[in-house]
Amino acid sequence: MKYALVLFFITLFFSCNAPHTQKAEKNEKPNIIIIYADDLGYGDVGAYGSIDLKTPNIDSLAAGGLRFTRGYASSATCTPSRYALITGTYPWRNKRAHILPGSAPLIIDTSQLTLPKMLKKQGYHTGIVGKWHLGLGNGKVDWNGHISPGPNEIGFDYAFIMAATQDRVPTVYIENGDVVNLDPNDPIKVSYQHKFPGEITGKEHPELLKLMYSHGHDGTIVNGISRIGHMIGGEKAWWIDEEMSDRFLAKAQEFILQHKNEPFFLYYALQQPHVPRTPNERFVGKTKLGARGDAIAEEDWNVGQILQLLKNEGLLEKTLIIFSSDNGPVLDDGYQDEAVEKNGNHKPWGPFRGGKYSLYEAGTRLPFIVFWKGHVQPGVSDAMVSQIDILNSLASLTGSTLRSSDGKDLMDVFMGKKDKGRDAMVFEATGRTGYRKGYWVMIPPYDGPAVSKWVNIELGNSKEYQLYNLKNDPGQRINLAKANPKKLKEMIFEYEKVTGRKLSKK
């Protein structure tokens, strides 16, 4: 009897405590890493159909995770997409959310809900490494003092960034608001309006260039590459382009190692394959596609290094990874790097029409992979998802009650538990917007050239309404606006309701 009573209490003890342990494990918050490529197209990844360009590490993410075939950025250019990712808000609602110069002020209000703010409140240590391009300061930045507001003021505990893009000044790294390696005796001056006395530019001295510009990049020469904009001073702080990828990778790895024992969120914003394409010499010639292909090969290697570190530290099953890109591909975007000549049969845009700057599908339809070993059901999903949905979905995952106005909670879709994504979305390209619902796409009439003379990409402009059914016509070759006026009217009505904009009766 005494033995049975002891056995009863032992059993009772374990039965009361076991569920608590299981619940704690179940509710443990995963680390979160967003790997965000720059100008990487749908067709640039092996898992999405690339044959001539190999991306084994990104492919391994896709094989072990959920690969979305209808994953979208908000916009066909960089700044707006990054704004949408961080805020969960359509960028066209903010008139300042367009491609920014390197001297632009911060376009995210410091009181605004952001992804890092939300995660920080949930106990995450938050960091960004890489490309920023959302503005810094209040409009008159002193590059020789502490730069604020910036990433730290909108929720990032740690920030190691470049201000804008690799082809824009200032060509310096900024760590938590301070220029790295700044020499106070050689102050930095930046302007997007005028040239400085004594400044050496690509326009005036093309003989000094190791990479010749093709259009729009004839400003200050740094490391043999002329940029957009003008800068003098700060030479000890100038980056070396060929070392940039390694520098960002090292900072990302360092962040992971420093915070491996607590929930962390890392926004790893890669600068590739945006121009100027300057892969490290280890990757030069790795592909047959020239500098653009080699930059993507280096980018893929970086992804592999992050995965290997997580594996070595026992963090792979504790880390949710989202991989995507800010906008569609472009070949010649300002430098003569033979991207066009060496592209061969490769199709960076995949089976779609357009690319960067375009309202057509390739402008915003991109690689979109969600990986969490042992948690996300591997496979392929045709659900329509947007980067705008990441904030609300991660809020749901981590138990936050905060929500953005435009995003959807698609966490069950990201996990592979449900196969129905969002019903509709507004998409944007350089201030022009269109509407996507299910497999239908409506593009309103817009003035302007049909094809950009600078980048040789169809922009989506037409004097007529355009209506496409992507299920039957993914290449958007058959305009159904006149053949299906009822559907066109429905799409126009919903577009106007969401955007508050009245369309012309062309």
What is the topological layout?
Elements lengths: L1 H25 L4 E7 L18 H9 L1 E7 L5 H10 L27 H7 L3 E7 L26 E5 L10 E3 L2 E2 L9 E3 L29 E2 L2 E2 L3 E3 L11 H15 L5 E6 L20 H23 L6 E7 L42 E4 L7 E8 L3 H9 L12 H4 L9 E6 L2 E6 L2 E4 L22 E4 L15 H15 L7
Parallel strand pairs: 1-11, 1-12, 2-14, 3-4, 3-11
Antiparallel strand pairs: 2-13, 4-5, 5-6, 7-10, 8-9, 12-13, 15-16, 16-17, 17-18
Helix pairs in contact: 5-6
Structure explained in plain terms:
With 506 residues, the chain is an alpha/beta fold. It has two domains: 30-418, Alkaline Phosphatase, subunit A (3-Layer(aba) Sandwich); 431-499, Arylsulfatase, C-terminal domain (2-Layer Sandwich). It has helices at residues 2-26, 56-64, 78-87, 115-121, 244-258, 290-312, 390-398, 411-414, 485-499; strands spanning 31-37, 66-72, 125-131, 158-162, 173-175, 178-179, 189-191, 221-222, 225-226, 230-232, 264-269, 319-325, 368-371, 379-386, 424-429, 432-437, 440-443, 466-469. A hairpin with a 2-residue loop joins β5 (173-175) and β6 (178-179). α5 (244-258) runs parallel beside α6. It is globular. It starts with a helix and ends in a 7-residue tail after the last helix.
